[in-house]
Design a protein that fits this description.
GO terms for molecular function: glutamate synthase activity. The protein has 121 residues and is mostly helical. It is 57% helix and 10% strand. The protein has one domain: Alpha-Beta Barrel (TIM Barrel), CATH 3.20.20.70. It has five helices and three strands; from the N terminus they run αβααβαβα. It has a three-stranded parallel beta sheet with strand order 1-2-3, covered by helices on one side. α4 links the parallel β2 and β3.
Length: 121
């Protein structure tokens, strides 16, 4: 094994460890929100955001909604909290396929903004 392939392997494992740490966050937050008796949890995609976010925060932070939704669903189910809340998702849902993927990952409600507005002209 040469030095290049070894460094790529080390980088891959480092990236995986970092992503595993990041993926825990949506589920932990969702569990806390469910325990606080919220009725809905919205999981948004990494390229969406709030008007209060900085441009660099919106463009350089976060994860795709699929990962956040899957982690949220799993954490709520494992902690017996899933029946307490409805899961919503939004952020770049553009096709029926996106809605089906979100539904299969646990979402019960779906948000659309940009696509319908563009269609209206």
């Amino acid at each position: 094994m040469d030095a290049t392939s070894h460094s790529h392997a080390a980088l891959a494992w480092t990236t995986r460890r970092l992503l595993n740490n990041l993926l825990v966050v949506p589920g932990v937050v969702a569990a806390g929100v469910a325990k606080a008796k919220s009725d809905r949890i919205t999981v948004s995609g990494h390229d969406g955001g709030t008007g209060a976010s900085s441009w660099t925060g919106v463009k350089n932070g976060g994860l795709p909604w699929e990962l956040g939704l899957a982690e949220t669903q799993q954490t709520l189910v494992l902690n017996d909290l899933r029946s307490r809340v409805k899961l919503q998702t939004d952020g770049q849902l553009k096709t029926g396929r996106d809605v089906m993927v979100a539904a299969l990952l646990g979402a019960e409600e779906f948000g659309f903004a940009t696509g319908p507005l563009i269609a209206l002209g």
